[in-house]
Specification:
CATH topology: Thiol Ester Dehydrase, Chain A
Low-confidence stretches: none
Mean pLDDT: 95
Distance between the termini: 11 Å
Helix content: 10-25%
Largest sheet: 6 strands, antiparallel
Radius of gyration: 18 Å
CATH superfamily: Hotdog Thioesterase
Structural class: alpha+beta
Number of strands: 6
CATH class: Alpha Beta
Strand content: 25-35%
Order of helices and strands: EEHHHHEEEE
CATH architecture: Roll
């Protein structure tokens, strides 16, 4: 298991996630279609050419999902119970097909669960950055995490 137990996180801890992903045009089209999002800005090249961007934008929910996904292996793989919510989600720069996204995570807060003694809540800030290290996505995510079980390796 690659994820960390609740006790292994520290406020201020930062993860530079190594896995990167280049977003393909087909992925943006499929994601927009699968989520029933017919916005021309994502799927219509002719329409997008008339906008200030000049080409289709990657669906922001694809960007958000990718950024969170890039963080899982280093932080929560096999040790998370549930996402509790996301807040303060912003997309300060556009993402286009062909952009390569990587992620950085900072632990903002740790809190013992009041109702679940074997679990705790970790508040993460996830940043998505493009190939130019420009922030393209930021979100604050609360995750319900497992505490280390008795006898589990450290």
């Amino acid at each position: 298991m690659a994820g960390l137990w609740f006790e292994q996180f520290e406020v201020g801890q930062t993860f530079e996630h190594e896995v990167r992903k280049t977003i393909l045009e087909a992925e943006n089209m499929m994601f927009s279609t699968m989520t029933c999002n017919p916005a021309q800005l994502h799927i219509d090249h002719a329409y997008a050419a008339t906008t200030e961007f000049g080409r289709p934008l990657v669906n922001s929910l694809l960007t958000l999902g990718l950024v969170v996904g890039l963080t899982v292996q280093d932080t929560t793989l096999g040790t998370t119970i549930a996402n509790l919510g996301m807040s303060e989600t912003t997309f300060p720069k556009p993402v286009f097909a062909g952009d390569t996204i990587h992620a950085r995570t900072t632990v903002l807060e740790l809190r013992e669960s009041k109702s679940r003694p074997t679990q705790g809540i970790v508040t993460f800030e996830h940043l998505g950055l493009n190939q130019n290290d420009e922030i393209v996505c930021r979100t604050v995510r609360g995750a319900l995490m497992m505490k280390r079980p008795e006898g589990a390796p450290a």
